[in-house]
Amino acid sequence: MKAVLIDDEQHNLDNLKALLAQYCPQVEVSATALDAETGKKLLYEHQPDLLFLDIQMPGQTGFDLLQSLSHYDFEVIFVTAYDQHAIQAFRFAAVDYLLKPVDITLLQSAVQRAMKQRQLKVHNQQLENLMHLLKTQQVKEDQRIALATTKETRFVRVSDIICCESSNNYTTFSLTDEEELLVCKPIYEYEDILKEYGFIRCHQSHLVNKKYIRSWKKEYGDFLLLTNGKEIPVSRGKKEEVKKALQF
């Protein structure tokens, strides 16, 4: 894979280039840039398969650069210092990011995922979803989340998710149209990013969207009855937290 690296600090570029050469020989670094303007020219000139992009740079940020492009026919791995707002957006859009200093194992995994995605498509829908999220500051009712199944990445409105149920490292999403999506990630990956959208962790294995809770049943233990007919258990340890979230 041909790659372009953009970071405003030369030592970061040198370090990443060395790591790629040693641990990711399938990646050929075509060019590097210290600012977004130069980086944009390199993208048009080299037509890379993969872009490693810093976010916080003087002048234009990495997001500014991407928003100035008309299409995304390459994969992106963001390389950044810790930024909670940005990371939340990355997780919603299911795009890869690495925190500085770069961990070798995570770098190799991100490159492998990028190669797999590159083989599947030319147009980067995840990145487009991220840019749409950042550009429009979507209202919560219209917010979409990227859910990666074994066959595809689906972009689902958060408001259409009724509940999530975990099974080891997989999570099943139940939707309002009665469809169920099996996603290749554990439920804890979604708890933080969905809680501000009204989702409640009522049990170790369950997240529920409180707008779809019909009642609290106490016949044989504590259960939440959802509008789709599912009965979701409320664990003893989560009982008070769920009551507080439901305001009763």
TrEMBL record:
Record-annotated Response regulatory domain positions: 2-115
Keyword terms, alphabetized: DNA-binding, Phosphoprotein
Domain HTH LytTR-type: 145-248
SMART domains in alphabetical order: LytTR, REC
TM annotation in the entry: none
Single GO molecular function: DNA binding
Pfam families according to UniProt: LytTR, Response_reg
Chain positions with 4-aspartylphosphate modification: 54
Protein name, as recorded: LytTR family DNA-binding domain-containing protein
